[in-house]
């Protein structure tokens, strides 16, 4: 069961990377990111997307506290800077 959860988390992480990396400099709302990753709509996405972005920054940013690649667009969503 642990390996299945790990696989699911990695699959979501790869989807998340693909969503933002394939459209550099495009701003994505939290809802758009959620729909690409989970393939469904949910009304309360803020906390879940925040956690996903935080984990992704830990993996790809030199300093996640001052991110270079994943920019937060306040009140809108996130943008992957190429």
TrEMBL record:
Keywords: DNA-binding. CDD domains: trans_reg_C (cd00383). GO terms for molecular function: DNA binding. Residues 1-82 bind DNA. GO terms for biological process: phosphorelay signal transduction system; regulation of DNA-templated transcription. InterPro entries: OmpR/PhoB-type_DNA-bd, Sig_transdc_resp-reg_C-effctor, WH-like_DNA-bd_sf. The keyword Signal does not apply. The keyword DNA-binding applies. Residues 1-82 form the OmpR/PhoB-type domain. Pfam families: Trans_reg_C. This is OmpR/PhoB-type domain-containing protein. It comes from [Ruminococcus] lactaris CC59_002D.
């Amino acid at each position: 069961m642990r390996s299945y959860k790990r696989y699911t988390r990695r699959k979501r992480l790869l989807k998340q990377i693909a969503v933002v990396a394939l459209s550099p400099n495009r701003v994505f709302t939290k809802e758009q990111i959620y729909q690409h990753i989970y393939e469904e709509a949910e009304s309360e996405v803020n906390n879940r997307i925040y956690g996903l972005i935080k984990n992704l920054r830990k993996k790809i940013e030199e300093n996640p506290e001052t991110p270079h690649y994943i920019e937060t667009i306040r009140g809108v969503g996130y943008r992957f800077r190429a």
